[in-house]
Amino acid sequence: xxKIRNIADLEESLSRPTPGxxxxxxxxxxxxxxxxxxxxxxxxxxxxxxxxxxxxxxxxRRVLAVxxxxxxxxxxxxxxxxxxxxACDLLDRxxxxxxxDAVNVLYLAGQKFGTRIAPEMTWxxxxxAPVHVAERYARSRIVVFSTACVYSLAAVDGPGSREEDxxxxxxxxxxxxxxxxxxxxxxxxxHGTPMLFYRLSYAxxxxxxxxxDVAQSVWEGRPVDVTMGYVNVIWQGxxxxxxxxxxxxxxxxxxxxxxxxxxxxxxxxxxxxFGELLGRTPVIAGQESSTAWLFDAGRSYELFGPPLVxxxxxxxxxxxxxxxxxxxxxxxxxxxxxDGRF
Length: 342
What we know:
Blueprint: H1 7-15, H2 19-27, E1 32-35, H3 42-55, E2 63-67, H4 72-80, E3 84-87, H5 93-97, E4 104-107, H6 119-136, E5 141-147, E6 154-155, H7 172-191, E7 195-200, E8 203-204, H8 210-220, E9 223-225, E10 230-231, E11 234-235, H9 236-246, E12 255-259, E13 265-266, H10 267-278, E14 283-285, E15 291-292, H11 298-304, H12 311-323
Parallel strand pairs: 1-2, 1-4, 2-3, 4-5, 5-7, 7-12, 8-11, 9-14
Antiparallel strand pairs: 6-15, 10-13
């Protein structure tokens, strides 16, 4: 991970290709397109692909980043890092049809927050946009970013949800994510498109994520709700590398893969640890429920090995970042929501 002192250090850490990602890029052929690229993970993922291709001597292979793009500056950031930005609304079928060809597709688009206010938009983004993409890239391989929230809540004293478990989650957002998987699976079978459902649980960046949420609450003296008492997390750089490696495992019918850390992280213990590091006394609210969104990521460990960045490294870096007034994306995870309502 290395010492992170500023945004440049952070972005370098998040986008540094791992040996596994580089080996996958060496095996794969063709260009790459990241759809929904302007969100939390897209910029560092696209940059990791670009850096990996440059490292193997393939500078001519393109990395394309597609998003609605709310500002010219966001587009310029991609271009400055050797990634070609393309403005496109994935809900516009004709605009999607006009996108460039790419053999390797990473689908990051979706909507979570605001579901209670405008559920129809969440369903459109999570089920209609996939129709357009699946039709356009029927001859590509696609890694579909999903969420581990597609499962039911699991007993905290059990093994966690596995890929073969039934999908019956609480809340409209999570059910729309099941819909996203079902839509892609339909088109995979219809067109023979190899796909993988990338069921990610809580990627960590010092600017957002469960650790940032807890650390910020401890720093500001706000209560830390422990009702959702345990979580699984993974450093975003490791999550990016695994997404690239998943292109090697796309299949028809689609394969599902839980991607997160195997360590079961106690929110209460995390608050106490941040209290030590930040010199604050945590304010604990609530009591741990007997269930939580917890996952068995053993299959991804078998494929890719353990993540390279250790949890304690991220905890210490997050505490330092918060203490120093480091930038926040202002996007809380709402990990404490036990009813699936966002």
